[in-house]
Amino acid sequence: MKKSKSNTFCPAPFTQLNFKNDNRIMPCCKIASMSPDSKVTARSIDEYWDSDELKNLRKNLFNDVKDPICSKCWDEETYRAGNTSLRKQQLARLGEKRINDLYETASRQLESNTVSKTLIKEIEMRFDNICNLQCRMCHPHFSHKWEADARTNPELSKLFATIPAPSSKNGIMSDETIQEIIQLVPNLEKIIISGGEAMYSRRHYEFLDQIKEDASHLTLFYPTNLTLLEYKSWKVVDLWKNFKKISIRVSIDGCTQDRYGYIRQGGILADVEKNIRELKTHKNIVVTSAITVSILNITQLTEIMEYLVSLGTTPQNVLVQYPVDLNIQVLPQGLKNEITQKWDDYLSGKDKDSPGYHNLIKQGQSIINYMNINDMSHKWNDAKEFCAIQDRHFNTNILDVIPEFTPYWQQNVKDD
Fold first, then answer.
1. Are 290 and 282 in contact (CB under 8 A)?
2. pTM of full prediction above 0.85
3. Cα(175)–Cα(48) distance, rounded to whole angstroms?
4. What is the pLDDT at residue 36?
5. Are strands 264-265 and 134-135 parallel, antiparallel or unpaired?
6. Can you list the residues of the chain whose pLDDT is less than 50?
7. How far is it, in rounded angstroms, from Cα 189 to Cα 52?
8. CA distance 388 to 30
9. Interstrand relation of 122-126 and 16-19 (parallel, antiparallel or unpaired)
10. Which one-letter DSSP state was computed for residue 229?
């Protein structure tokens, strides 16, 4: 038994399963890639849970080895001062006692080369790539609208060429996989339901209906655009009444309709506000918010954060790392300086006793730190071309919506 706890230990490979809509299974949503064998569609949970790939990952994380497939968390722990990676968030959420118990159990089971499925307490699932919006930082794997347009628009097809398409037809989770998940439900504590957009997916509503009789112990967590709460005859709030807790993290990337609608094509901000108000009337539903931070909204960071607080939500942030063209690290240095100065001015004038002050500082400062710690401005030209292709597709003009880009739009930054 290992005497001291590994500095790279993560609970995910021991307690979680992440089901992609193309029927791949992975330990968590942050995993970059596993070997081709681990991506075989229709692989059973039993096969995956006892696979050599997962066994090797567990051993690495248990022995102070930074496995390269976990690069997103290692990068965030290196570059995002003031914030935490998903790995550290999970360690903090479980708490010291539970982590210590898990660590001891994992240590014994690793020695026997068998990890029990009874440790699985959390899963994340994507039913399909069906979505009612077409967000500029998204891609065909998570949006059937982008998928359809990329098939008919050569420019978009080229734009998304580096992003693997779903390996099964239309990226639909198989019925067999869903039934395997249902068998796990009695032992689970939490199910994360991602998309596409779950509120727009028939299969999501059918799944909730199937498990509702055994749901009183379950927490459901949704990252969602929250533009709707109904689908055909289904009303999701009625189904949610059967569950212990519903945790909603609504993505809001602008505080005015022009900017929000530009980033999330087809979205109506007033609908999101109305749905937040509706959900806050239900005792078992908790609503938080998240900014998907990209070059498209970083210039209005402070305004968006204030707006999210005004909605009665606690803001979080999700950094766009891919596509790289929208990563805030690609911004020219002059624009980064302006954004940083605006943030510093905001902090200096902020009342430290105001609601949510410490969370705003934690979230906002981590974004500014991430932006400034790495210079990727040599990709600024690629970023402009990425935006131009999408503008041609939607018949929009980024400078009409983000005029603060104007002094930098003609600026070419050469590769070093």
1. no
2. yes
3. 17
4. 44
5. antiparallel
6. 1-2, 35-42, 82, 164-168, 415-416
7. 26
8. 29
9. parallel
10. S
